[in-house]
Amino acid sequence: DIQMTQSPSSLSASVGDRVTITCRASQGISNYLAWYQQKPGKVPKLLIYAASTLQSGVPSRFSGSGSGTDFTLTISSLQPEDVATYYCQKYNSAPFTFGPGTKVDIK
Amino acid sequence: QVQLQESGPGLVKPSQTLSLTCTVSGGSISSGDYYWSWIRQPPGKGLEWIGYIYYSGSTYYNPSLKSRVTISVDTSKNQFSLKLSSVTAADTAVYYCARSIGGMDVWGQGTTVTVSS
């Protein structure tokens, strides 16, 4: 099965900073990748699908890129409400494995 | 708009079977466009995909849980269900149901299941 990794596992940045999270698949998955945001104590929320398509209602400061094995989630200007754990997930074929998560907080 | 709601016992004894149901409202589980998944999250840990079912009844399970998992669908009730057998403390988690068409765009609120005697 394809394994998903994320880096870093956690990061601390200032409000307004540009933040980049990386997700890597152990084999190519084309663009069948989703990103989720999970705030503490809350339900995960779909941010991006098809590697770069923003889900309806998601702020435009979030963007995704990549294809094949390497993907990135970028927050162009970090806001206090972006404090959360971010997960990538592959869905080219089952199992729909999640990455281990990246915890983002404010410096 | 489509909403999902998990239901089932919050406490299960070790070695017993965990049973949860996800009720879909605001849309039909038989629409054919979506996969219906179960995901869990142990306390303080990440998300683990358990498996999915299609309205036709076809399923796919996480290989790490495959021997203990059964997911079924009841289209007449607009529900799908999860059974996890021979549970241990390691199965203690928040269990979510979700709709997926690629990404999982609609999630239930989650239900906490504790495995303890």
From TrEMBL, chain A:
Residues 2-89 form the Ig-like domain. Transmembrane segments: none annotated. PROSITE patterns: IG_LIKE. Keywords: Adaptive immunity, Cell membrane, Immunity, Immunoglobulin, Immunoglobulin domain, Membrane, Secreted. SUPFAM superfamilies: Immunoglobulin. It comes from the Eukaryota. One of its GO terms (cellular component) is immunoglobulin complex. Its main location: membrane. It is found in: Cell membrane; Secreted. The keyword Transmembrane does not apply. The keyword Transmembrane does not apply. One of its GO terms (biological process) is adaptive immune response. PANTHER family: IMMUNOGLOBULIN LIGHT CHAIN. This is IG c499_light_IGKV1-27_IGKJ3. It comes from Homo sapiens.
